[in-house]
């Protein structure tokens, strides 16, 4: 049996944490559940990360970076409508095929609100910084147009909410998304 390096084990913790946090949120997920999913002890988990908050922030950072990379790759060499279509198409595919990524995003936003209410601003700073890197990634391909970037992200958040609530694609809740076709599959 090949033994994993600490970095490989760390990666497996981030993947497992993403799945666990996506399901249970920050407060509803135990480090025991993460350790069990990875197949390590809690003490070993804490040798890799100083605590639950650090694990959550690493999973959140990975989620943001994966989304940024996904949009950057989809829009590479494209501008305007073509970039918008490409980014919309890849996002729709990811949220349908990897729902844990969508749910992790949603849990990140909830964690910020809860933490800041408790006086902890580290979550908020990390998530807002990631959001701005995302903005900075999609803004140029969308023509560096603030309204276009805002609209693209607004439709994305609406899609997140509808998917998170479990509305099937043929439900009437999606009927108002007609104009959003500009932000995904070509009309």
Assign the structural class, choosing from mainly alpha, mainly beta, alpha/beta, alpha+beta, or little secondary structure. mainly alpha
Low-confidence stretches: none
Gap between N and C termini: 52 Å
Largest sheet: none
DSSP strand content: under 5%
User: What is the average of the pLDDT values?
Assistant: 90
Radius of gyration: 18 Å
What is the tally of beta strands? 0
> Can you count the helices?
8
The helicity comes to over 70%
Give the H and E element order: HHHHHHHH
Shape: globular
Structure overview:
This protein has 187 residues and is mostly helical. The protein is built from eight helices and no strands. The longest helix has 24 residues. The mean pLDDT is 90.
